[in-house]
Amino acid sequence: MIDTAVARAAFEVQAGARARVSGALHFTTVSPLLEQGEAAIQAGEALVIDLGAVVESDSAGLALLIEWLSVAKAGNRSLRYENIPAQLHQLARLSDVDELLTTG
Predict the structure, then answer these.
(1) Which member of 5, 46, 57, 63 has the lowest number of beta carbons within 10 Å of its beta carbon?
(2) Going edge to edge, which strands form the sheet with 48-57?
(3) Please, what are the domains in the chain?
(4) φ, ψ for residue 95, nearest 5 deg
């Protein structure tokens, strides 16, 4: 388990309207990512978000992904997640929102 007091997360825009999220998605790390992701989605710079480097997540991480989907929908953009970690996928399944993360 990652110590959330020192946990870090990052959002990186990449070429081809892609972005990459890395680190631990927790209550203490998602606020800056929310703003960065919203801006990139609205600008059309993040239509595919790779989650393969996410090492841990809790419900705040899941809420972040759902909020980004909402931002994309409001802007008439499609958003797709790739490489969703098993822990995050399981949390989405338990919350009965897994279909939101896997369609796009």
Answers:
(1) 5
(2) 9-14, 18-25, 48-57, 80-82
(3) 9-102 (3.30.750.24)
(4) -90, 0
